[in-house]
Design brief:
single chain; alpha/beta; 434 Repressor (Amino-terminal Domain); Rossmann fold; 3 domains; six-stranded mixed beta sheet; 14 helices; about 45% helix
Length: about 350
C-alpha cells in the first residue's frame, strides 16, 4: 500500500517548518522565494498531490463570479442559457461560489458598457461574459486583463484579446453546416440569410455564419445565390419585418431563408402562410421554434445547446479557479440537426452535465 505523504514528511525533506509547508500548500501567508522553491521541490520528489477538493470544501473564502448576459426576456436563447448558469451555481455552491449576474440590453451597446463597468467590482475573482457586441466585449476583456481578472467568453468567439477560455459553437463551421444542408437539399437556388441585429459588423458570431455558408456554397460550386437582410425586431414590428422579407422574396425569387439567430419564430408562421414552399432553417430548440417545427412552419433547426453552454461555463470556471484543473482554451459545442421526426429525442436530453 502506498504510503500517505504528510506535511511533516515534506518539511523534513525541504528543511523547513511544517508551518511553512502549510502556507505553501494552502497559498496563504508570506513565504520566501527560496523556502517556497524548497517545498515545491520536496513535494515533487515525494510525489505529493494535495487533496484540492477537500481543501476547497474546508476553506472559508468566497469565490465571486461576475456574469454578464442579456436580459433573458429579450431572447429565449438567453433564457435557456441562464437556466444552465443557475443550475451550475447551485451545483457548485458547496465550494463557496457566489455568482452575481449582471443583465444588459442586447439591443443597446452603451448599456452593455455601463453594466460591464459595474461588473468589475473589487470582490470579483473572475468574469463570464455572454457576448452580443464584439467591440464592446473586446474592451471589457482588455480591462479584465489589466485588472488580472480571468475571463470566459460564451456565445461569440473573441480572437483578438486573450481570455481564459471560449465556450460556444464555431460560428463559421455552423455556417458551413448550413451550406451543406442547403446544397444536399438539391432544389434550392436562392437563399436569404436573415440576421436579427441592427449592426451586423458588431455581431461577428452572426456574420461568421453568413461567411461560412457562402464559402461552403462557393467551394461546392453549387448554383445557389446568397442574399442578406438585417432587421431589428426591437425597433420594427413583425409586420414590417415580414414586409421586408416579402420584398426580397418577390424580387429575388428566394426559396430558402436561413435565420442566423434563435428568432426564426418571429417570421416563420407568416412567411409559410404566404409562401408554403419556402424552406426555413432556424436555430435553437426554444419552445416557439419547436412548435413551428412540429407544424411544418420551420423545416429544420440547428440546435446550439444553450442550457449546456451556460452550465459548462460555470463548471469550467470552477475547474480553473477553485479546483486548479487544466482547462482548454476553446470548447466548441456540438451542433444538433433537428427535424420534426427527431426533435423529441433532443428534448429528452435533460442531463446538462454530459457535455465533456
Amino acid at each position: 500500500m502506498k504510503k500517505r505523504i504528510k506535511i511533516k514528511d515534506i518539511a523534513i525533506r525541504a528543511g523547513v517548518s511544517t508551518g511553512t509547508v502549510d502556507r505553501v500548500i494552502h497559498k496563504r501567508g508570506k513565504v520566501s522565494k527560496s523556502s517556497k522553491e524548497k517545498v515545491l521541490k520536496a513535494m515533487e520528489e515525494l510525489k505529493y498531490s494535495p487533496n484540492i477538493i477537500a481543501r476547497t470544501l474546508a476553506r472559508k473564502k468566497v469565490t465571486t463570479l461576475s456574469i454578464l448576459i442579456p436580459y433573458p426576456y429579450q431572447d429565449f436563447y438567453w433564457k435557456m442559457l441562464k437556466s444552465g448558469i443557475d443550475t451550475g451555481l447551485r451545483d457548485y455552491e458547496h465550494f463557496n461560489l457566489l455568482g452575481n449576474i449582471y443583465f444588459y440590453d442586447m439591443f443597446d451597446e452603451s448599456h452593455f458598457q455601463s453594466v460591464a463597468e459595474q461588473a468589475l467590482t473589487p470582490e470579483t475573482d473572475a468574469v463570464i461574459v455572454g457576448s452580443e457586441f464584439n467591440h464592446q466585449t473586446i474592451n471589457f476583456l482588455k480591462k479584465s486583463n489589466r485588472n488580472e481578472i480571468p475571463s470566459i467568453v460564451m456565445n461569440a468567439e473573441i480572437k483578438s484579446v486573450p481570455c481564459l477560455s471560449y465556450i460556444g459553437t464555431n460560428s463559421y463551421q455552423t455556417g458551413c453546416l448550413t451550406g451543406k444542408l442547403i446544397v444536399t437539399k438539391g432544389n434550392l437556388t436562392q437563399v436569404l440569410v436573415l440576421h436579427n441585429t441592427k449592426n451586423i459588423q458588431n455581431a461577428l458570431h452572426l456574420k461568421n455564419k453568413e461567411i461560412g455558408l457562402s464559402d461552403f456554397i462557393s467551394e461546392s460550386k453549387a448554383e445557389v445565390g446568397i442574399h442578406t437582410l438585417s432587421v431589428d425586431d426591437h425597433q420594427i414590428s413583425e409586420i414590417e419585418i415580414v414586409k421586408k422579407i416579402r420584398n426580397k422574396i418577390d424580387k429575388l425569387n428566394i426559396d430558402c431563408i436561413y435565420v442566423t439567430s434563435s428568432k426564426g419564430y418571429i417570421i416563420a408562421k407568416s412567411i409559410k402562410s404566404l409562401y408554403p414552399e419556402i424552406y426555413i432553417i432556424g436555430h435553437d430548440l426554444i419552445d416557439n421554434n419547436v412548435k413551428l417545427l412540429t407544424e411544418d412552419k420551420i423545416d429544420v433547426i440547428i440546435n446550439q445547446s444553450a442550457e449546456k453552454l451556460g452550465y459548462f461555463s460555470i463548471k469550467t470556471m470552477v475547474n480553473h479557479i477553485i479546483l486548479e484543473k487544466r482547462i482548454d482554451k476553446k470548447y466548441y459545442l456540438p451542433l444538433d440537426i433537428v427535424y420534426k421526426e427527431n426533435y423529441q429525442f433532443y428534448l429528452k436530453d435533460s442531463d446538462i452535465n454530459t457535455l465533456y
